[in-house]
Backbone:
């Protein structure tokens, strides 16, 4: 197990600790709710959904967070400003854990930011994300809010290498400053770097490796939504198609079992490379992702203690899952 020479920052977001040396803090797990075609969403634009089903999946994620010691975050993905307000209001009423403001539309995310400000929730909120596609209007909305935590996305379309990601974070390009300095100027005191998942064969390996480099250079918490790599893997999708059938309740059979194993197991890869958080995808996967990540954290913590005298900090799987 390795030890970073650079001092590693640990941020506190509504009581949740994130960052530090490998083996110190438990990996933070973020499950997505209200994503595209999520079974519990009835009208994505109007923010109409099955509240009982939504509460069930949020509570199940919390249950497995408490069971394993891995902190959790609600990744709220909304399709419209109207839906964003309703979904943040619902989730924060059901659960006290931090939440991600997420969408593919900037207007929707800034509406979430404005709402969080108005109702005093920015202390629990994490913006997703500051990146090279942000408009001046979006950057102004971030700066004018009281939010302190944001993901900084290291997606460099011109250079997917580790060096390309570091260059984007450190140096001027699209903006007058690198993204880390830009985030600081916008009032973000708790930046979390997402190393930007790319497809297998087109940069997935560099996405995982970049976490080590980001922590070595900046000492910031880093993470990844690595499940997107196997989900987009053509070979895996063709294997599922050849060895599973699709019924009313989804795929069934060997092909689906293999697809699911690759999806869930991929979450281990960034953790072994030193990452601090994982965007593990659909929140329904909590029952499988948390024990797997908990086991990984235990093994890493055991090595960090033996080799570098790094003590695990509660809550941590090695303090919670040991028989």
Residues:
């Amino acid at each position: 197990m390795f030890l970073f020479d650079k001092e590693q920052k640990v941020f506190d977001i509504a009581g949740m600790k994130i960052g530090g040396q490998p083996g110190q803090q438990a990996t933070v797990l973020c499950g997505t709710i209200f994503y595209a075609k999520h079974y519990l969403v009835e009208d994505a634009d109007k923010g109409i959904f099955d509240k009982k089903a939504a509460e069930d999946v949020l509570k199940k994620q919390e249950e497995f967070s408490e069971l394993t010691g891995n902190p959790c975050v609600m990744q709220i993905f909304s399709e419209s400003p109207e839906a964003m307000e309703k979904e943040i209001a619902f989730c924060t009423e059901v659960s006290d854990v931090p939440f991600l403001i997420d969408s593919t539309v900037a207007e929707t995310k800034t509406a979430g930011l404005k709402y969080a400000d108005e109702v005093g929730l920015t202390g629990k909120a994490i913006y997703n994300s500051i990146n090279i596609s942000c408009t001046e209007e979006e950057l102004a909305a971030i700066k004018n809010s009281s939010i302190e935590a944001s993901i900084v996305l290291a997606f460099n379309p011109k250079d997917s290498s580790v060096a390309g990601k570091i260059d984007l974070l450190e140096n001027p390009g699209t903006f007058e400053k690198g993204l880390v300095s830009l985030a600081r100027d916008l009032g973000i005191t708790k930046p979390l770097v997402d190393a930007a998942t790319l497809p297998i064969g087109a940069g997935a390996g560099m996405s995982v490796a970049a976490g080590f480099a980001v922590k070595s250079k900046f000492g910031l918490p880093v993470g990844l939504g690595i499940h997107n790599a196997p989900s987009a893997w053509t070979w895996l999708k063709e294997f599922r198609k050849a060895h599973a059938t699709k019924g009313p309740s989804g795929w069934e059979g060997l092909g689906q079992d293999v697809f699911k194993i690759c999806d869930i197991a991929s979450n281990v890869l960034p953790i072994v490379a030193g990452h601090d958080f994982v965007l593990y995808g659909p929140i329904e996967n909590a029952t499988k992702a948390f024990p797997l990540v908990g086991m990984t954290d235990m093994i890493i913590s055991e090595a960090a203690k033996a080799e570098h005298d790094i003590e695990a900090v509660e809550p941590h799987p090695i303090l919670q899952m040991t028989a």
